[in-house]
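Writing this down once: the sequence line spells out the residues, with the fold written below as integer tokens. I am pasting one below:
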Amino acid sequence: MSVTITTVAKQLPQYSRTTAEIMPFLDIWLDGQEDRFKRKVKKIFGNAAVDKRYSIMAPEEVFTATSFQEKNDIYTREVVKLGEQVLSKALTKASWDGTSLDYIITVSCTGIMIPSLDAYLINALKLRQDIVRLPVTEMGCAAGVSGVLYANEFLKANPGKRAAVIAIESPTATFQHDDYSMVNVVSAAIFGDGAACVLMSSKEEDSGPQIVDTEMYHFYDAQEMMGFKLVNSGLQMILDQQVPQQIADKFPDIIHPFLEKNGYTIADVNHLIFHPGGRKIVETVEDLFGKLGKNIDDTKEVLKLYGNMSSATVLYVLERFLDRECEEGDLGIMLSFGPGFSAQRVLLKW
């Protein structure tokens, strides 16, 4: 029995702006700040390697001072819509009926809602009343891969079942209007909103790349490097500038032993499905993989087209590989980093 990824679908929010179109809103937000600081902020946006960002809110709302409650109300309303859309799209793409799902995992860290998104989807799409649900809320950018790990464990233990992993994020709902720190500026420059759904199966008749192995890697003494702090105005980003260097330092330990225990080396891997955390992280990983004769072109393209959508982003990269129909026998490795600080890995075989 093997677990396969049947399909991936994405759904974008209704609002979008190019980087050039965002600049006038930055002028309004930065009104009263020193000219030197204004130039620095615009340079950060211009050099973020992101051409366009999507959002659940209009730019006017993003750059307007609002309470945590107001932003979270928008988040709750819009992620339910996106969840219905992306799950329906994935089911149609796979020619599955929603009632065939046995397990539903919903992933998000950019808002708070109880009951969680999965409860709304069960009702909206009339999924089975005995479906097993798991909301994943506190694993940040890594959680798209984490959801795949959890679904894989469920499906390995339960042959003949199907699972859906739905990742929906709205980093724009976490923008801090009165915070002019570099962390807030950089996060605003690199992040965007989006949703993705992965359908997985342990049914023999369902096709797709097989999950060969999964693994997590936890960095010691790095809990404060990435995450959110809950403040009165919402979720305040924590992002240490040492993250790229931490990744570079631990990269051999993250990649090589994982492949070796499965009888492979990096030379055997055809496809790199890496989460685009931001320009500096992408450049760091591109340099590391480049020295090994590999590229992360799809990762860079997803960052350019959509920005970093937290947990959903790596699934946008995965969709590009599934839609292009890779060769039988090809190997791929999914990799993402997130709060903890941790790395999540999935080894795939087509």
